[in-house]
Design brief:
With about 750 residues, the chain is of the alpha/beta class. It is about 35% helix and about 15% strand. It folds into 3 domains: about 170 residues, 3-Layer(aba) Sandwich (Rossmann fold), CATH 3.40.50.300; about 250 residues, no CATH class; about 200 residues, HIT-like (HIT family, subunit A, 2-Layer Sandwich). Helix 4 packs across helix 5. It binds a DNA duplex (10 and 10 nucleotides) through helix 4. It comes from Rubus argutus.
DNA sequence: GTTCTAGAAC
DNA sequence: GTTCTAGAAC
């Protein structure tokens, strides 16, 4: 255990551990759990109870901690400690005689709030809203600790399993033990969809790892020092988090928990599992031949990049087969090797730095199913799912999809993974889709293609990141053999942040045109039985994919075609559009401007030729908003489209921002108007005018993000509580909404709310 | 899209 | 016991 500083005397050093977290983040529970099983003498200094069970002062906490440390006790500082200034005096109690640690309980805001509410539930009727307000207010001041503040060790916990493992670490710490120094776990800079709240945080963090200094970190069994700044990684980070990210020059090195020095290493490395040999039951001998052959082909064409075959267990037969065959072929063991470990924790647990990992995906590119796929999707977090969906909806055997990982993904922050490449290999398992029934001539061909697609995908990342001259990776230019209906689409799936949009389009086109009947049927079955939704995939006569709508989803379409029949709801009819009150308004004023064109079902169908129509819709919407504002100048309107509407026929929402309506009942109602899922009409106009189409944020997961106030961005645990809050909140709207005319207000209001 | 309702969360 | 969510049915 004694990795960092060998114990000099017989006695262990006391440590002072600052717990950092909002009310309800579990600080006290953390202390209690460690203290109940630890053999080290601990004292918990809790500001809430320090005065004979009642709340005391910071000074009392400092005194109490100082005397405990003097007596050789280790100390937990159990108070929120969210701001650096609040922590500084405790840190000073430490060094050099006492080791100072921080444990950051950076759990989901919603969880903290709900726990706080529970805790204060007996203290009268104010509980819920008040606890939420307190937690929100405190978190707005959050400053994550840095090693440079004076800590020997910082542990970041983002979920309960992180907390559990930290509890384990501290519980197991005997009186004489010390823990390795460094920063552990993942810092949470705030999820992608919550960028709005970042302006409330005093600082934002560039994800760990991306800016290591060349500081040497000593270790008991490895002391390789590779500490150069990796600019390509940093670029990737800044590209995907362009908003609000400030670069910092004093970031601390991050080291893995097993004590190997894993500071940044700029060798591009692809870690990949053996494809098709687990659940897909592909013959191991044949598979290992193919792996080695493909590796031999690519390894010399990838510059200094490395390929690593990963398996969870030493007993893996495919690993030993590949090792032997690679040795026979004299493959450079610096460029290709095998590795035993969890592919989602290569950096944090294995000390192996891999900027790209491959996933043995399923054809739906969905989480689950066990094995590597489940592990990678779970480790990648919802952001991986969203990012994957942006690239492709499905995958064919033999193909690969390169997914740039948003910097908010735990895999990016914790493991330094910048890309996940999903691949689908051939299947020899009768229980799985596309069973090849032991047809190994077909199977081998597909497996070759799978690895080709995978390594090409990796090569494209290497090339983009390193900006190597085109010719240095000739393999990219070599054409794949054309086996079955769907293999050559792989090169089109290569993608980087910078060219994502165009590549996405390419991919979809190729995927659409290649969709075989077999897959279609299955897709329909799946969406039918698994989601219960009626919007199945359909194939139009031109072969492109379209959406079919349930009967209930046709209402708007029918009105658009025959508005005269629905004079009860229709406000205005013109040649191009119909204006009506939303039948279930989600705010005081909620109109729909419906296009009358046949064939324009939704925003996804909109192209440049519809630009004039969009402008008309916007103008008509604006006219009505202004009409309402004339009658009630306190209203604020927003005009926009749902990325994936439930109702057929393109329609623009004109909705007042009070969201004061009995029809607003669930998360989806709220999030469909208050996340990136809602596309402001002004932005759509700009995008269609410049790109010929609108950006769609149509991921379902946006519908289940935490409920944030549309003004102050505070989080609320339930819809009723959110509604209580928005009824009162008078904060001004977030800056993004105040810009570019996204909000429409009465002239006197001039975009400034009191 | 809504309604209904089981059962989870409080 | 009551509130709230989320999934199925429409």
């Amino acid at each position: 255990m004694d990795v960092d500083e060998p114990a000099k005397g017989k006695e262990g050093k006391p440590i002072i551990v600052l717990l950092i977290g909002a009310p309800g983040s579990g600080k006290s529970t953390f202390c209690e759990q460690v203290m109940s099983s630890s053999t080290r003498p601990w004292v918990r200094v809790c500001q809430d109870t320090i005065k004979n069970g009642k709340a005391g002062t910071k000074a009392q906490c400092i005194d109490s901690a100082r005397s405990a440390l003097k007596n050789g006790k280790s100390v937990f500082i159990d108070r929120c400690n969210l701001e650096k200034e609040q922590r500084d005096e405790f840190v000073k109690l430490g060094r050099p005689q006492v080791d100072v640690h921080a444990v950051v309980l950076d759990l989901p805001v919603k969880l903290c709030i709900s726990r706080s509410v529970k805790r204060t539930g007996h203290e009268g009727n104010l509980q819920g809203g008040r606890a939420a307000a307190v937690v929100n207010r405190m978190l707005q001041k959050k400053e994550l600790p840095k090693l440079s503040e004076g800590y020997g060790r910082i542990t970041f916990c983002q979920n309960e399993s992180d907390v559990e493992s930290a509890i384990g670490t501290y519980s197991g710490l005997g009186p004489l033990d010390t823990l390795p120094h460094g920063s552990f776990g993942q810092k949470n800079p705030g999820a992608k969809v919550q960028l709005g709240i970042m302006k409330f945080l005093k600082k934002t963090d560039v994800p760990a790892n991306t800016e290591s200094t060349s500081k040497r970190v000593q270790d008991s069994d490895a002391s390789q020092v590779i500490g150069k700044r990796d600019t390509s990684l940093k670029e990737a980070c800044l590209v995907s988090e362009s908003a609000n990210m400030e670069s910092k020059k004093d970031e601390e090195p991050v080291i893995g928990s097993v004590g190997i020095d894993v500071s940044l290493n700029d060798t591009p490395t692809l870690a990949f599992p053996s494809i098709s040999t687990a659940d897909f039951q592909f013959d191991l001998e044949k598979a290992s031949d193919i792996i080695v052959e493909k590796v031999a082909e690519f390894v010399n064409k990838l510059g200094n990049a490395r390929l690593v075959l990963v398996d969870l267990t030493h007993k893996s037969k495919v690993l030993s087969l590949v090792r032997n065959k690679a040795a026979q072929k004299n493959i450079d063991s610096n460029r290709f090797f095998t590795f035993v470990g969890d592919i989602t924790k290569l950096h944090s647990e294995g000390g192996l730095r891999c900027n790209v990992i491959a996933n043995a995906a399923n054809w739906r590119l969905k989480p689950g199913g066990g094995g590597v796929n489940a592990a990678i999707f779970s480790a990648g977090g919802p952001t991986l799912e969203v990012a994957t969906k942006e690239q492709a909806k499905s995958l064919y055997p033999g193909n690969a999809v390169v997914v740039p990982l948003p910097s908010t993904s735990p895999l990016f922050c914790r493991e330094g993974v910048t890309h996940v490449i999903h691949v689908l290999g051939p299947n020899m398992n009768p229980q799985r889709p596309n069973y090849l029934d032991n047809d190994y001539s077909k199977g081998c061909k597909i497996l070759y293609e799978t690895y080709t697609s995978l390594f090409e995908g990796f090569a494209s990342i290497v090339r983009t990141q390193k900006k190597l001259p085109e010719g240095s990776i000739e393999i990219l230019q070599t054409k794949l053999s054309e086996p079955q209906d769907c293999s050559e689409s792989a090169p089109k799936t290569h993608s980087t942040n910078s060219d994502k949009k165009s590549k996405r389009e390419d991919l979809h086109e190729s995927e659409r045109s290649k969709r075989s009947k077999e897959y279609q049927d299955e897709a329909e079955n799946v969406s039918d039985s698994n989601t219960g939704k009626v919007n199945l995939s359909n194939i139009k006569s031109d072969g492109s994919k379209t959406k079919t709508w349930g009967s209930w989803a046709q209402v708007l379409y029918n009105i658009a075609m025959h508005p005269e029949k629905r004079k009860d709801v229709v406000l205005e009819i013109s040649e191009d559009v119909v204006i009506l009150h939303d039948i279930y308004p989600k705010a005081q004023k909620h109109l729909l401007v419906v296009a009358r064109d046949h064939g324009l079902d939704c925003l996804a169908d909109v192209r440049k030729e519809n630009l004039e129509l969009l402008r008309t819709m916007h103008a008509v919407g604006l006219k009505w908003a202004e009409k309402f504002l004339h009658d009630d100048s306190t209203l604020v309107f927003r005009l926009g489209y749902h990325s994936a509407p439930s109702m057929r026929q393109l329609h623009l929402h004109v909705i007042s921002q009070d969201f004061d309506s009995a029809h607003l009942k669930n998360k989806k109602h709220w999030n469909s108007f208050n996340t990136a899922f809602f596309r402001d009409s002004v932005d759509v106009l700009e995008e269609v005018s410049s790109d010929g189409k609108a950006i769609l944020n149509d991921d379902e997961s946006l519908m289940s993000v935490e409920l944030r106030c549309n003004r102050c961005r505070s989080v609320h645990p339930t819809i009723p509580k959110l509604k209580l809050h928005i009824g009162r909140c008078r904060a001004s709207f977030p800056n993004t909404l105040l810009q570019n005319g996204r909000l429409v207000t009465a002239p006197s209001n001039a975009n400034t709310d009191p």
